[in-house]
Recover the amino acids of this structure.
């Protein structure tokens, strides 16, 4: 999991300053809520949620073999990006 420092908020900050955390999610697409220095939850902006839910719905419509092909292509794309 790749977590950008700017997208991290403490659980206590989320409780005390929800509006600021929501605005941070709008800027970054999402924020990771940490509790006891461990990832605990993710708050998505509505745009990021819609993007991700569209991908999930698409994958849900595929057969198992098609999902394997998509997964393999994603792995290759990530490996190429890392190199």
């Amino acid at each position: 999991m790749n977590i950008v420092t700017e997208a991290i908020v403490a659980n206590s900050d989320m409780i005390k300053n929800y509006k600021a955390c929501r605005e941070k999610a709008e800027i970054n697409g999402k924020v990771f809520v940490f509790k006891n220095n461990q990832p605990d939850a993710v708050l998505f902006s509505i745009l990021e949620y819609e993007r991700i839910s569209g991908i999930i719905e698409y994958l849900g419509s595929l057969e198992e073999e098609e999902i394997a092909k998509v997964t393999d292509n994603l792995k290759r794309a990530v490996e190429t990006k890392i190199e």
